[in-house]
DNA sequence: GCAGGTGGTGAGAGCGCTCTCGCGCCCGCG
DNA sequence: CGCGGGCGCGAGAGCGCTCTCACCACCTGC
């Protein structure tokens, strides 16, 4: 672990190029209004000295940081057990990188961390925040909103209904759910059950709503509540089999849940899809491809969600490519989903 | 997206508390050498004004940033397809948070990004870096080392043999592999095969070495090369069955590979574990629990690896709890693994 | 009772950058 | 040939903080 050598300053570059600090600064920041001869000379000096601007000094005066916080509130390990989070992060990273912004990651667990995150964001260390608010009762979004930091949410926050200034990006959970259920209906299934996700999350609520859109007059006993986990899926599937032995299809709120349901179905001697067809949600790989049978599911473009979140935020900050998809700063952007047919339905 | 209000400065707090800037600064940074009466007065003023120090201004003079870069070089999506990365990140995040450091995430893909990362690190925006170098020929580690930023590597870098100043944290891949193979041997298996990982990664090489430690005089045809993917596992397993039909056990380089192997074995009508016992590596959940049969595998404490990396780096920077596990700044730290017995072996 | 600490405080000089301003130069026009 | 107006550049004032240093009590010891 070596110490970093003393880095050359603007002053040094200026001296070497035989110009003033101001001119070097202009060149470094685009070089408008400087004669080509000088631009060239300064560039050369920068090169030779290996000059890199001191971001701290720059931020001090510009009050920008070219840094965005990504806040992932996840008391449970769920987010970590699937690639969802990582993919979104990657989309975000790509977009931020393309616009020369840094990504400051804040992972929170438990209430204690909320204050810390609030303080950090209020502290003006970053220009904006991307926040994943997964739970309806999560105080974090409110807290962040209050910190006065420009924010884009990943997933519809629970309270967005009453606030038109909330910007978020979400998948079309409801539409995707409708597609899944319609697909099952199209297969001739009539006793289509739904295993819900954790209903304190908007995604679970929206998927349930989608199910209801299609199955308006369905037997309410065909709905079993679970929590997005395989174990929850198993439990719910057992319930379902006990309650409605004639069930011939299941739409599970996500692939993990579906995998649990599949296992119970197999144990119960029900053939999939012959006896019971199963559809999941997420298209979580490799899981969805490797269940037995491979899972028909609803795919969402997670990486694109991340990218879009970043783009929206940057645009709100007057960064990013101007007018690209002009005026698209609607408060909520919903990305389409697609049904991926495999063997389970 | 509201604009942030003008924040109070040290000066403002000083005025309100009736002291000098210097005194406020002292209080904000611990309050040593200031009378309790004044400390109290300053604290009150800070509270009332909602003062938060301007990190940019502070960094400008202290030359510290209390920020650590986490560099994840991953051209392939592999890292994103499993929770490995996320868990490690979480461990890192916990440790950094505990010491009030920020986590700047740099994801790279492809050669172009290397220069960008190098520039960023050399730019002195962060105090140190945690780098995941997964490939033997990755130029990134060298590049980073040259940038003169204190660095801890995740996973043994390929070239660490010749450089004693390289600090890294790794799992005991070799020892874990030995345990796995010994376990299979203990089951009375004699034709134990190994499906390797991508051999341009040290973890794959080390696991292969562990296999060889136990199976010194094994039939070389029992070794099939794969790449950590399920598809690779399938391919290798087919090869193996063709080459050595009498194979009675398989140690796969990771769980993904093992899952592919399991599928091929099932198709081939071999019962697991009766005909062929299978052991994986990683204990990747939920996959490992949900294969058919559930996978016996080698677990590594991934979160702890992350935490340890952060701790080592912070300690190297003279931060972190002093003397905690004194003098433990060895160049390489290897974490133990444990065999998790499930049904497949 | 005075030299020599000692512990608490404030004044002030930067850290490296941006940005406003004004000055000089050269152009075009009258 | 003189004068107004750009345009290109440099001087200098900060941004908000830390940290050294000098200063001013007050306290100890001879």
Automatic annotation (TrEMBL), chains A, B:
Coiled coil: none annotated. Gene3D superfamilies: 3.40.50.2300, lambda repressor-like DNA-binding domains (1.10.260.40). Residues 8-62 form the HTH lacI-type domain. One of its GO terms (molecular function) is transcription cis-regulatory region binding. Transmembrane segments: none annotated. Keywords: DNA-binding, Transcription, Transcription regulation. This is Putative HTH-type transcriptional regulator CelR. It comes from Streptomyces afghaniensis 772.
């Amino acid at each position: 672990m070596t110490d970093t050598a003393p880095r050359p300053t603007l002053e040094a570059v200026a001296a070497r190029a035989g110009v003033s600090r101001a001119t070097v600064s202009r060149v470094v920041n685009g070089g408008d209004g400087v004669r080509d001869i000088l631009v060239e000379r300064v560039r050369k000096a920068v090169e030779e000295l290996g000059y890199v601007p001191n971001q701290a000094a720059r931020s001090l005066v510009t009050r920008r940081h070219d840094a965005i916080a990504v806040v992932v509130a996840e008391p449970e390990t769920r987010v970590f057990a699937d690639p969802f989070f990582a993919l979104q992060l990657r989309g975000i990273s790509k977009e931020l990188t393309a616009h020369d912004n840094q990504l400051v990651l804040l992972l929170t667990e438990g209430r204690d961390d909320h204050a810390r995150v609030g303080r950090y964001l209020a502290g003006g260390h970053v220009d904006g925040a991307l926040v994943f608010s997964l739970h309806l009762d999560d105080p974090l979004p409110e807290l962040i909103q209050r910190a006065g930091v420009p924010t884009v949410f990943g997933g519809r926050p629970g309270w967005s209904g009453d606030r038109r200034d909330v910007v978020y990006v979400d998948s079309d959970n409801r539409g995707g759910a409708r597609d899944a259920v319609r697909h099952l209906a199209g297969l001739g299934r009539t006793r289509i059950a739904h295993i819900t996700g954790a209903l304190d999350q908007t995604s679970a609520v929206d998927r349930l709503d989608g199910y209801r859109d299609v199955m308006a007059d369905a037997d309410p006993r065909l709905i079993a509540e679970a929590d997005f986990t395989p174990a929850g899926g198993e439990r719910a599937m057992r319930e379902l089999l006990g309650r409605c032995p004639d069930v011939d299809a299941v739409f599970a709120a996500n692939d993990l849940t579906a995998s649990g349901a599949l296992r119970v179905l197999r144990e119960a001697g029900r053939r999939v899809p012959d006896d019971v067809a199963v559809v999941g949600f997420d298209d979580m790989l490799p899981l969805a491809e490797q269940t037995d049978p491979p899972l028909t599911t609803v795919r969402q473009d997670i990486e694109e969600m991340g990218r879009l979140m970043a783009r929206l935020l940057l645009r709100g900050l007057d960064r990013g490519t101007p007018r690209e998809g002009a005026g698209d700063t609607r408060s909520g952007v919903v990305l389409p989903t697609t049904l991926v047919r495999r063997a389970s339905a």
